[in-house]
Amino acid sequence: MIKTLTIKDFIIIDELKLEFDKGFNVITGETGAGKSILINAIDLAFGARASKELIKSGAQRAFIELSIELSDSFPVSFFQDFGIDNFGNEIILSREITETGSRSRINGSLVTQDVIKSLREMVIDIHNQHMTYTYIQPKYHINLLDSYGNEEHSKILNEYKVVYSKYTDILKRLDDAKNKSVLSEQQVDFLKFQISEIESAQIDDVEEDVKLQDELNVLVNFEKLKELTYSGYWALYGEDGCIIDTIGKIKSNLSKAVEMDQSLSEYEAEMINVQESLRELSSSLRNYAESLELDEQRLDEIQSRIDVLDKIKRKYGNTLESVLDNYKKLSDEYNSIEFSQEETEKLEKEKADLEASLLEISDRLSSSRKTISKLLCESLTSELEKLDMPKVRFDVSILDCEYNSLGRDNVEFLISTNISEEPKPLAKIASGGEISRVMLAIKTIFAKTDNINTIIFDEIDTGISGNASQAVAQAISNLAKSHQIISITHQPIIAAKSDRHFYVAKTQDEKTSVRVYTLDEANKIKAIALLAAGEVNDDSVNFAKQLIYN
Predict the structure, then answer these.
(1) Whether residue 72 has pLDDT greater than 90
(2) What is the per-residue pLDDT for 273?
(3) 87 in Cβ contact with 107 (< 8 Å)
(4) Distance CA 420, CA 416 (A)
């Protein structure tokens, strides 16, 4: 359950901290006072969409923090899976919104919105007008029905999903195989020609063209290379006054100098090394120059081979590596075509086997859904009768449709609130009060089947009055015995059932600000009196006391 809510610089709230109770927490206040801001803040902490417009004017950031007490059933693996510190039975959830984005943390660790979504699904259910819209849309009814199922139903559904995933994969592969098999004979012949042309080039080394170009450069320029390297040799060692002779004289002079000053021995050693290195270099240059000769046959071979490789590269890739990559693609394509008929026959058989499995499992799934729907209808009808809808009929329509990821059932919730009318789609309920009670009934039913321990209602009492208000108040009160309930209400009879009462007030002096008061017993009576009569007087106070204590 939510223990505390801290808000700073959010919309028109400067700063506040609320402490929620177990059971029923009610929020009241005048229209426009900012009651929904509190619910929006909790929703935002649990991953609702954030924008910089939510930052209070003049502030740099908005900050929301929740302290959440976990149930004994909360999985410890959550902390291990996402690398979050385990604080025992408590989680600190926070979200910071800045001009450039937002950051969420759990127990101080930065987390993604996917992690926040996982947490939300385990600890809280926020019901607002958007959720009402979602619940009445037929496309969501199958998920609601499935979530009411037992472990055996979930097992069948998961079994179906596995087979359906294989089935869709087979359909895709079969479609690809059929598309390949319809290539024209001319297209196949051209593919074979391309493969043969690359094979005829006999490419074994992806660097062959580079190496051949280097060798060609040597053969074409051998005379110049011979001249340049011989000139280096002669300058170093091959003529009077050459560099090595000059180095020798310097070395000899240094040897004499060392006899007079030993500190010069290091230079003498360096000069010896230089002399030896230059001798080796001159020898290498001479050997290289003498090895050079024009091999016209080899020159022709290289030029011919380069022409072959250049032609291949122009057609199949800028490099030999690209050519070989394309060769593999072409070969794979040809092989897939060559065996496409055999593959198609194999896939057709697999498809038929999977269709048989889908039919068998989907039949079991449909049967299970029909069983579940009867239980759900009985439970919802019972809850709706408690909510002052004595003539209500709730039904679930399950019709065949094409295979999809959830089976082959088209599920839609139907309802009749008048004994003389047949059940109609939930989306066609005209009364806002009826919609509110249906939503409360659904929440009450599903709260018994999930592990969520906090439910938030943003004006679940819309459009109700009289006996319906009394029934809704009692239903929420009963639900609050097993769940923490946080609810905005305009109904005094509902507010009177609360275990903790918050009153939201807005002031507009030099700036707009919101304050939230946690009411003691005396102020709770006044707040309910104000809610009932629009003013606090003896009559409204007595009425409020009757609501609270009777």
Answers:
(1) no
(2) 93
(3) yes
(4) 9
Segments in 296-339 forming alpha helices (H): 296-316, 320-338
DSSP SS3 for 155: helix
User: How many whole angstroms separate alpha carbon 543 and alpha carbon 192?
Assistant: 93
pTM for the model stands at 0.64
Residue 368 tokens read as 């299970």
Q: Which helix (H) or strand (E) holds 66?
A: strand 62-69
What pLDDT, on the 0 to 100 scale, is given for residue 430? 55
Q: Which CA distances in Å does 213 have to 28, 220, 284, 311?
A: 86, 10, 23, 15
Please report, for residues 84, 144, 358, 439, the alpha-carbon distance to residue 138 in angstroms, rounded to integers and kept in the order given. 38, 10, 23, 14
Q: DSSP secondary-structure letter at 61? A: -
Residue 373 exposed, middle or buried by CB count within 10 Å (0-12, 13-18, 19+): buried
With both helix axes pointing from N to C terminus, report the angle between 466-479 and 432-447 in degrees, rounded to the nearest 10.
Answer: 20
Q: Tell me how far apart the alpha carbons of residues 188 and 194 are, in angstroms, rounded to a whole number.
A: 10
Return the closest-CA partner of residue 149 out of 445, 352, 416: 445
Over the stretch 207-265, which tens digit does the pLDDT of each residue have?
988 889 888 888 888 889 888 988 888 888 877 778 888 888 888 898 998 888 888 88
Q: What residue has token string 């979930």?
A: 154
Q: How far is CA 54 from CA 61, 136, 179, 277, 508, in A?
A: 9, 29, 53, 77, 19
Please determine, for residue 401, whether its predicted confidence score (pLDDT) is greater than 90.
Answer: yes
- State residue 497 phi and psi, 5-degree precision: -85, -5
End-to-end Cα distance, the chain: 28
Q: What is the pLDDT of residue 133?
A: 66
Say how far apart CA 29 and CA 39 lie, in whole Å. Answer: 14
Phi-psi region of 19 (alpha: psi -120 to 50; beta: other; left: phi over 0): beta
* Residues paired with residue 5 on neighbouring β-strands, in sequence order: 18, 66
- The torsion angles phi and psi of 145, rounded to 5 degrees, stand at -65, -45
Nearest CA to 359 out of 371, 348, 370, 351 is that of: 351
CB 326 within 8 A of CB 312: no
Cα 334 from Cα 197, distance rounded (Å): 14
DSSP state of 55: B
Would you call 353 helix, strand, or coil by DSSP?
helix
pLDDT tens string 148-195: 889 999 999 999 999 999 999 999 988 877 776 666 567 778 888 999
Stretch 36-46: mean pLDDT, rounded? 92
Tell me the per-residue pLDDT of 460-511, one tens digit each, with 9 for 90 and over: 777 777 788 888 888 889 889 889 999 999 889 999 999 999 999 888 777 7
Residue for token digits 């249906």? 438
Q: What span, in angstroms and rounded, lies between the C-alpha atoms of 112 and 103?
A: 8
The pLDDT value recorded for residue 341 is: 66
Q: For residue 429, what are its two tokens?
A: 């309920």
